[in-house]
Write a structure and sequence with these properties.
three-stranded antiparallel beta sheet; mainly alpha; extended
């Protein structure tokens, strides 16, 4: 018959079973980390599959565009649509990288998220039809660009301040 003794402490409880101590806090932390890593890898796989699908679809569409149209008659809208699709693939790949790095390190890199947001807004600005879009929408997109650029600047400036403080020993 095994005796079980329970020790309570501030961060959790430890169980002494025979000669082994099982720390419930540490075990539950590792379980949460493992589960989030698996979920992160599943999301990375799905986003990568979407990126591959979009790349194949976009490449096929571009080849069809080149083969089916007269080079002198290519419309501006088709080229903008292609550029928008390429930027969408870049956004998807950046999201894959973000989720992958988070699932490994469990630290979210804010600057990458801001750059993905900036790429998405720039994509929207490039493919927007300025003739049919309301002025308020264009102004809102400009405001979002300024806000994201400001946030990115503050994040980078904060990182440099922290690095300088670490070098100086403060």
């Amino acid at each position: 018959m095994q005796h079980i003794m329970i020790f309570h402490w501030q961060g959790g409880a430890s169980f002494l079973m025979g000669n082994r101590i099982m720390d419930t806090m540490w075990t539950s932390k590792r379980l949460v980390v493992s589960v989030t890593s698996v979920i992160g890898m599943i999301i990375v796989g799905l986003l990568l599959a979407v990126a591959i699908y979009l790349t194949i679809l976009d490449t096929y569409g571009f080849i069809q565009l080149i083969l089916d149209t007269d080079p002198n008659v290519i419309e501006k809208g088709l080229i903008l649509e292609f550029i928008g699709a390429v930027l969408l693939i870049i956004i998807c790949l950046e999201l894959v990288e973000t989720v992958f790095s988070y699932s490994i390190s469990h630290h979210l890199r804010v600057e990458v998220v801001l750059l993905v947001g900036m790429t998405a807004i720039v994509r929207e600005i490039i493919v927007i039809d300025i003739k049919t879009t309301e002025a308020a929408m264009v102004a809102a997109l400009g405001g979002v660009v300024v806000a994201i650029a400001g946030a990115y600047y503050l994040v980078e400036r904060g990182k440099k301040l922290v690095e300088n403080n670490d070098k100086n020993g403060n």
